[in-house]
Write a structure and sequence with these properties.
The complex is a heterodimer of chains A (about 130) and B (about 700). In chain A, strand 9 and strand 10 form a beta hairpin. The radius of gyration of chain A is 17 Å and the shape is globular. Chain A has one domain. In chain A, the strands form two sheets. In chain A, strands 2-3-4-9-10 form a five-stranded mixed β-sheet. In chain A, about 10% of the residues lie in helices and about 45% in strands. Chain A is mainly beta. Chain A is built from one helix and ten strands, in the order E-E-E-E-E-E-E-E-H-E-E. With about 700 residues, chain B is of the alpha+beta class. A seven-stranded mixed β-sheet of chain B has the order 12-24-23-22-13-20-21, with helices on both faces. In chain B, strands 14, 15, 16, 17, 18, 19 and 25 form a seven-stranded antiparallel β-sheet that branches. The longest helix of chain B has about 40 residues. Chain B starts with 9 loop residues before the first strand and ends with a strand. The chains are: A mainly beta (about 130), B alpha+beta (about 700). Chains A and B meet through strand 1 and strand 5 of A and strand 2, helix 1, helix 10, helix 12 and strand 21 of B. Strand 1 of chain A pairs parallel with strand 21 of chain B, so a sheet runs across the interface.
Chain lengths: ~130, ~700
């Protein structure tokens, strides 16, 4: 296969909503996806923030280091400069850049489940630094 | 186990903060040799007292004061040899966490104090378990010691780098006088004298002298390279046969050798995707083990009471001791880091520097390898292929006009033309009003004529056009020599089922010519740096896992976009290079090796994690009494000791299994030209056809 000058240029769409059915939202995040359950169950749940925090890492002999972990909550971050914002049907999802890159580079299919209590459980993501 | 960020057990080294779960872990990190010596001393004491305990217990069970003799013999083992575990357990409790030391301490102290109670407060002849307490400590210490020794072996090439720098460097003062200083005291700009046979103590530029330099320790390339005035030399390399004076540019911890060492060490801190399983497992491990230990112990106590068994307490205690001793969280934690460390060591011995060990995951999945052309598949500098003068103009005239201007430029094309004039012994003329326009060419006056040397726009010509007063006088055709290793590398990648593509900013003709010569069908031309990234993105969107091989500084965007970026490093500025992997010797066969090493590493990490989880999943139920229906309660007379033996060897077996990676990688790479003596193929060039 041979290509003339850089193959057709098009703006790379980083994120796009795919499906919104039965209270779930599917988002394309780079090369990965993010499926959110339960965010639309309640009208006051309009924001979802997914970010990284440093937590205690597993100790493997001399390497008992702090590792990065994903946390999510139903809120709007104070400092938006570190986040990529995705707005879908009145709901806004804030992904910290590192979270975005990890989903993208890891091609992860990440699930975020919003529980009735308001707690958000994120699964399927590996942090790529 | 988990380490809180508020822990006071941390050290700061090279700007990075390292946390530890215990004082023992921190001591091991700060001074592995001292820690290894300490374990050895404790181990000797443990064996010296444990052997008599075993003799008394099993050889002379009926002798007078049998229990008391065992108690006295076990005190040095518990108090001195076991102190390592108690310290760890103390820190663990202080930080409200759990670790292996806590489990070992709980097991041995329970056995010891229960036996002491029986010794002093029960009738003569009741069974005591001092042998189990002492033997558990001795066997686990033995396992720790073997693990420490094998880990040192795993890290051997990095250690070699650390000890490579000379003790003294010869600093030259302005008046030529020489003083001996420590390499750490070298400052930027110092002139350092390196005599034949000496190791270069810092990165720097040669200001005087010429010599062959053995760079194998950095690049893996066994053949020495000639270094003269203006060339860079790097720390750790050996000056072979001439005297060199170098101006220090990157001394001390900024030097190449330190950077390579740092990267190897940090490899074990990297995390591959599969370690997520280990993280989850180890985060719940200690509470689960303690729950199993207490519940199984209580179960057996009440069960045996209900059956009228006369020693229910003894069995319950032995069940508890067996469960806490057999559990091995370290094997799970070690599975990933030790493999990544060994893999990084193997790679670095051959000039493959892994900057991001997390990239092994993606390397193992690679489906498409995209090569940049200039400087990657080809040598970075062009050579003159032909000179085409217009009618009535001579070969010498064209070269004279072009070289008379180009001698004022540092551009690679200019160097190729000046080099041609030197080879042909053509005398150059004086030029003035020189003006160089980046990307277009150079112009100036030579003997009153306005001469312009610019990129050729004529179809079918890759090179430059020389014009005088606006009229074309001729063309100089240029080509880039293809690296010899490119042929073998592309053929190997294809034979492995990988798709190979080439991307270049060059013209269609040039791109197709190189691609055809190398047997690459998928080729992109006219691509600017940003376009390369876009091309990679499109491959990724079609489901490919892309490895991009390019220039570490100019192709940084593409290197970052790709799933794995492999940069052809200059061997001089690792910190500046982008990408996940850096090839120090520019041998393209190392791209093939990197892909194979990535796949083998991930496979070994999975194997280790599977083994460690399997070990604990199978043996915990055994320790809790799963085999009692088959063997009877008699099994508990041996189980605590067998548990210690299994636990002591479990981490060691993970390290030993990881060490097998070395042979596995060598066997896998040998069909692709990997030399068993770590001698990579020579990197030479041949002209493109």
């Amino acid at each position: 296969m041979q290509h003339r000058n850089p193959i057709k240029r098009r703006h790379h769409q980083l994120t796009e909503p795919l499906v919104m059915i039965m209270g779930t939202i599917d988002l394309k995040v780079g090369l990965g996806t993010l499926r959110i359950y339960g965010l639309m169950d309640s009208p006051e749940r309009k924001f979802l923030e997914i970010s990284m925090v440093s937590v205690n890492g597993p100790c493997s002999d001399e390497s008992c280091q702090i590792i990065r972990k994903v946390v999510a909550r139903l809120s709007k971050p104070a400092d938006l400069s570190r986040y990529i914002t995705l707005a879908v049907s009145g709901i806004t999802v804030y992904l910290e850049r590192e979270v975005f890159d990890s989903i993208d580079r890891g091609r992860s299919n990440v699930r975020a489940k919003v529980m009735r209590s308001g707690k958000v459980v994120v699964s399927g993501i590996s942090i790529i630094t | 186990m988990f380490v809180p960020e508020s822990s006071d057990l941390f050290v700061e080294k090279d700007g990075q903060k390292y946390y530890f779960c215990s004082q023992a872990c921190m001591d091991k990190f700060l001074s592995p040799e001292a820690e290894s010596g300490k374990i050895k001393r404790k181990l000797v004491v443990a064996w010296v007292f444990t052997i008599p305990i075993m003799i008394v217990q099993y050889g002379f069970p009926g002798i007078l004061f049998h229990n008391l003799i065992e108690l006295l013999l076990s005190i040095p083992v518990m108090a001195y040899s076991g102190s390592l575990f108690y310290k760890g357990a103390y820190h663990s409790i202080k930080m409200h966490t759990g670790n292996m030391d806590l489990l070992v301490s709980m097991g041995t102290l329970t056995a010891f104090f229960f036996s002491a109670y029986l010794t002093f407060f029960t009738f003569y002849g009741s069974s005591v378990y001092f042998d189990a307490a002492a033997f558990i400590i001795t066997l686990i210490l033995t396992g720790n010691y073997i693990e420490t020794v094998t880990k040192e072996r795993a890290n051997s090439s990095a250690r070699k780098l650390e000890t490579l720098l000379p003790d003294v460097a010869h600093k030259l003062a302005g008046d030529g006088s020489e003083t001996e200083i420590k390499p750490d005291d070298i400052e930027v700009g110092d002139i350092i004298l390196v005599r034949p046979g000496e190791i270069v103590s810092c990165d720097g530029k040669v200001v005087e002298g010429k010599s062959e330099v053995d760079q194998s320790v950095i690049t893996g390339e066994q053949d020495p390279v000639l270094r003269g005035e203006g060339d860079m030399v790097v720390s750790g390399t050996r000056n072979l046969n001439g005297i060199l004076k170098i101006r220090a540019e990157k001394p001390g911890k900024n030097s190449t050798i330190n950077e390579v060492y740092r990267l190897i060490q940090s490899a074990s801190m990297g995390r591959v995707k599969v370690q997520r399983i280990a993280d989850v497992f180890s985060s719940i491990f200690i509470p689960v083990v303690l729950a199993v230990a207490f519940s199984s112990s209580l179960f057996w106590y009440f069960y045996l009471v209900s059956t009228g068994f006369i020693y229910p307490w003894e069995i319950a205690i032995l069940v508890f001791v067996s469960v806490v001793v057999i559990a091995c969280p370290c094997a799970i934690g070690l599975a990933g880091p030790i493999t990544l460390l060994i893999s990084s060591n193997i790679s670095s011995q051959n000039g493959i520097i892994v900057k991001n060990s997390g990239s092994f995951d993606r390397l193992a999945k690679a489906t498409t390898i995209v090569f940049d052309k200039t400087g990657t598949l080809t040598m970075p500098d062009p050579v003159v292929e032909n000179v085409l003068p217009e009618e009535g103009i001579s070969y010498e005239d064209i070269v004279t006009m072009a070289a008379s201007l180009e001698k004022y430029s540092d551009h690679p094309i200019a160097k190729a033309i000046v080099s041609l004039s030197q080879d042909k012994k053509i005398k150059l003329k004086t030029a003035n009003e020189i003006k160089e326009i980046p990307g277009l060419g150079i112009m100036g006056n030579v003997e009153g004529k306005k001469i312009q040397v610019s990129r050729s726009t004529k179809a079918g010509i890759t090179g430059i056009t020389i014009s005088v007063d606006g009229k074309d006088m001729g063309h100089i055709l240029l080509s880039y020599r293809i690296r010899d290793s490119a042929f073998a590398a592309i053929s190997s990648l294809k034979s492995m089922g990988k798709k190979v593509s080439m991307v270049t900013g060059d013209s269609e003709d040039q791109a197709k010519r190189i691609a055809q010569t190398l047997g690459i069908e998928d080729v992109h031309w006219g691509a600017m740096p940003a376009d390369k990234s876009e091309i990679i993105r499109q491959y990724q969107e079609s489901g490919e896992y892309v490895v991009f091989v390019g220039d570490g500084i100019n192709d940084s965007v593409a290197l970052e976009t790709a799933d794995v970026g492999i940069s052809m490093g200059s061997g001089l500025d690792i910190a500046r290079e982008s990408g996940d992997i850096i090839l120090l010797n520019n041998d393209l066969n190392h791209v093939v090796y990197s892909v194979i090493i990535g796949a083998k590493t991930i496979s070994k990490v999975k194997q280790n994690i599977g083994w460690a989880i399997g070990y604990n999943s199978v043996l915990l139920p055994v320790a809790a009494g799963a085999l009692v229906p088959l063997t009877g309660l008699y099994i508990y007379s041996l189980l605590p000791i067998l548990a210690a033996l299994a636990m002591g060897m479990s981490s060691t077996s993970v390290v030993l299994n990881s060490l097998r990676l070395n042979g596995k990688i060598r066997r896998s790479l040998s069909p692709y030209g990997w030399n068993a003596a770590s001698k990579p193929n020579k990197t030479q060039a041949s002209p493109a056809h």
